[in-house]
């Protein structure tokens, strides 16, 4: 049997994070004995010459690398609507399972979704090194920046809905080949979100512990220019998901819009998202 062996850097932080991930994977795999929920399988782990080695199932490229290769090779487009629908269902089933165990993934992004089979369009969610239980003392620094939910940026309490936001960003990126909310800072990320999705609810701004870092008292978005040390207002450029996803059909755009609800209370859970009509739209079957 082919396996993947991950060698952990001999550094306390990496070591501690890897031990946490091993504990979580053992816990998750124990609750999914039949390997139904699209999460990486851990086979073993051991120490060798002062290094921790983790043995898990061997998978193929991650979605970021594969999308880049697919685009640059000039071959047939892989991420068609039927395949995006299949990937979405698998990701949501993985999240529904994790969330049912009380876990938040906390770092869902294209690099952390790996292909298991290209022909059957099967994927696995990996990298639970940043994951936590919803009951833990939640850290304010979670999620890779381009996939970070508004409530995390503003310093509000957050829950499993942050993974749903990340999935919306990932699907838009797989459809177009470009990061949906391109940014070089958290302030420019917020400007993109407001421009494409719409304004952030006043009550979220009022409650956010970090709102003052990005918004004036009048709720104007700003950023400090590091060269001049002056504050500069950021005026969000108006756009829309429909404009940003020209290759997506209307059902897909509606679905991504459903996931990218700025107010977490209005954003669906994984179970609710699985009931969206786009996921049962009868596309042509994926040929394996």
Automatic annotation (TrEMBL):
Pfam family, one: Pkinase
Keyword tRNA processing: no
InterPro entries: Kinase-like_dom_sf, Prot_kinase_dom, Ser/Thr_kinase_AS, Ser_Thr_dual-spec_kinase
Residues of the Protein kinase domain: 1-279
Keyword tags: ATP-binding, Kinase, Nucleotide-binding, Phosphoprotein, Serine/threonine-protein kinase, Transferase
CDD domains to which the protein is assigned, alphabetical: PKc_DYRK_like
Alphabetized SMART domains for the sequence: S_TKc
GO molecular-function terms, A-Z: ATP binding; protein serine/threonine kinase activity
Name recorded for this polypeptide: Protein kinase domain-containing protein
Provenance organism: Punica granatum (Pomegranate)
């Amino acid at each position: 049997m082919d396996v993947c062996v991950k060698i952990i850097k001999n550094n306390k932080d990496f070591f501690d994070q890897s031990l946490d991930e091993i504990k979580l994977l053992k816990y998750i795999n124990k609750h999914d004995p039949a390997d139904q929920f699209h999460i990486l399988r851990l086979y073993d782990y051991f120490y060798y010459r002062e290094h921790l080695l983790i043995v898990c199932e061997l998978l193929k490229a991650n979605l970021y690398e594969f999308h880049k290769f697919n685009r640059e090779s000039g071959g047939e487009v892989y991420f068609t609507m039927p395949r995006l629908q299949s990937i979405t269902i698998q990701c949501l089933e993985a999240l529904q399972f994790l969330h049912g165990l009380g876990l938040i993934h906390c770092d869902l992004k294209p690099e952390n979704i790996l292909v298991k089979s290209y022909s059957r369009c099967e994927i696995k969610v990996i990298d639970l090194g940043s994951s936590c239980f919803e009951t833990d003392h939640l850290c304010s620094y979670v999620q890779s920046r381009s996939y970070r939910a508004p409530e995390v940026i503003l310093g509000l309490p957050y829950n499993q809905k942050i993974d749903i936001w990340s999935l919306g960003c990932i699907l838009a990126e797989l459809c177009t080949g470009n990061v949906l909310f391109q940014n070089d800072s958290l302030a420019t990320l917020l400007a993109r979100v407001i421009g494409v999705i719409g304004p952030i609810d006043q009550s979220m701004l009022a409650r956010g512990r970090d709102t003052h870092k990005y918004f004036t008292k009048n709720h104007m978005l700003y950023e400090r220019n590091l060269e001049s040390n002056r504050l500069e207002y950021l005026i969000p450029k108006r756009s829309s998901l429909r404009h940003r996803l020209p290759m997506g059909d209307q059902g897909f755009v509606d679905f991504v819009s459903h996931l990218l609800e700025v107010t977490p209370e209005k954003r669906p859970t994984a179970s609710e998202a699985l009931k969206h009509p786009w996921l049962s739209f009868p596309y042509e079957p994926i040929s394996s």
